[in-house]
Amino acid sequence: MSKLVIVGTVAFDAIETPFGKTDKILGGAATFIGLAASQFNVDSAIVSVVGGDFPQEHLDLLSEREIDISGIEIVKEGKTFFWSGLYHNDMNSRDTLITELNVLADFKPVVPKSYRDSKVVMLGNLHPLVQSSVLDQMTTEPLLVVLDTMNFWMDCALEDLLTVIKRVDVITINDEEARQLTGEYSLVVAARKIHEMGPKYVVIKKGEHGALLFHNENVFFAPALPLEEVFDPTGAGDTFAGGFAGYLAKTDDHSFENMKKAVIYGSTLASFCVEKFGTERMENLDGNEIHKRLQQFKALTQFEIELT
Amino acid sequence: MSKLVIVGTVAFDAIETPFGKTDKILGGAATFIGLAASQFNVDSAIVSVVGGDFPQEHLDLLSEREIDISGIEIVKEGKTFFWSGLYHNDMNSRDTLITELNVLADFKPVVPKSYRDSKVVMLGNLHPLVQSSVLDQMTTEPLLVVLDTMNFWMDCALEDLLTVIKRVDVITINDEEARQLTGEYSLVVAARKIHEMGPKYVVIKKGEHGALLFHNENVFFAPALPLEEVFDPTGAGDTFAGGFAGYLAKTDDHSFENMKKAVIYGSTLASFCVEKFGTERMENLDGNEIHKRLQQFKALTQFEIELT
């Protein structure tokens, strides 16, 4: 078992879907990543920033999950990052209604001293310079760095993004972003180009169509569990990444074979995340439910064809 | 091993993709289904119609595959069904440029006497009344009837379509068509509604995103093999259906477990079909290649997570 340090947003979200809408609720990439990773009882810390308006109960929720929050800076006079989005009927497209950076605009991450030797680092979606700064603070080289990013940084900070991408072992990125980053439509070709940018492992997230893991000439695919209803996709990608990184931190095995399992765990946790608004489902999730859903994943994908 | 009777078009296609374009080449649902099923050396027959303009060499190609063509009517004074389509850059959308029904307009299928006791019937995409007529001609009730259809018949012959759907065991349909047929966005809910229309097994084809097999509360998923290049998607769905039906005719086991394997074989064969224009790849495909690709499918999807 390794220590896991997570950098990312801890935020307010306001979400509207065809099923309803929320006021400002707990959100943020690091929140979803941390909740997912906490399922593996790893020693983890979140590095982030919130404003004076951020309720203590949200911080307590993370602490109760044994997540170290000493790296979450509280800017008393500031306001917490706020995102608001509207999902359309197919749940695959969304409009961003509001983005208020607030305290995130001047965020200088500080990794707690006791986590600067963490073996696993999960760089949640944030400005690539912030992601780089976390790596710079590590006193011993991590064994595994996982980076998540999005198209926004390709549009406005591409050079910084390419610099940090060079330094990571695994990148998780969605299909459209992989295409934008490489200019290639085929995900197989896109993954190869991203390999050449640095990451030995490339995970391409396809939302309801599952996720692909590439490593040299190897490829593994995990479907998304077919659900009767996707209630709110917010945080599903972060939950996937958190499950992935959490499982690898727990098992200390960064082989392709074990990374396949990490992808399955990530997909399993993401399948819960979308069942309720925001973090609600992830706050109320027990090991038995996860176990049962892993069995569903096996039934969904495993077959017996004897090949000699 | 069971006899397999296939009804569907035998046709000319003219295809344009970002990679190039063809003149009139061999196409048609029954052609692709027959070529795929022939990989299993089952005793199969195609029921279809062509015009006097149809080259003998195309018929010879089918005969050489041990496909009985006595049920392919040749209307000497007529012209063969012709379809022309243009694929866009993403290969997921296409425009139909030309549809000339020609001899298909008055097609009255006649199942050869020696195939009226076939245990497996594959109803390729055609007017639902033509599909029904084939079932009416069977002298003993088939053990397995598989139906493929498309949105066109939902728009202009819905009642006839619902009548024939009631009579089949398996339906193969793409995701958008499943949504149109049921008015449900969730494929899980759509599959349940289609079950209620008659078919015990529902296969939803998602193109590059794979295929789902539903049977009561069971669901199985086969991804499409991630390819560097999809050259021409024409016939991929029919090839999938042909591989599926051919494997089931060969094995005589219509259990859910065996149907999972049939879905994998169908996906495997479809992954070859798209590598070249039209039927070219399916005409030049040997058992070793199939075996190797099945191994790729296993590597792509199989994982080891011990669950008690």
Summarize the structure.
By secondary structure, chain A is an alpha/beta fold. Helix content of chain A is 37%, strand content 23%.
User: How much strand content do the residues of chain A show?
Assistant: 15-25%
The SS-based structural class of chain A is alpha/beta
Q: What is the class of chain A in the CATH system? A: Alpha Beta
The CATH level-2 architecture of chain A is identified as 3-Layer(aba) Sandwich
Mean pLDDT figure of chain A: 96
| Residues in helix, % of chain A | 25-40%
Number of helices of chain A: 11
- Rg for CA atoms of chain A: 18 Å
- What count of domains describes the coordinates of chain A? 1
Q: Quote the distance from N terminus to C terminus of chain A.
A: 37 Å
Largest interface: A-B, 37 and 37 residues
CATH fold type of chain A: UDP-N-acetylmuramoyl-L-alanine:D-glutamate ligase
Helix/strand order of chain A: EEEEHEHEEEEEHEHHEHHEEEHHHH
Largest sheet of chain A: 10 strands, mixed
| DSSP strand tally of chain A | 15
Provide the low-confidence segments of chain A as ranges: none
Overall form of chain A: globular
CATH homologous group name of chain A: Ribokinase
Q: From the structure provided, what is the oligomeric state, counting identical versus distinct chains?
A: homodimer
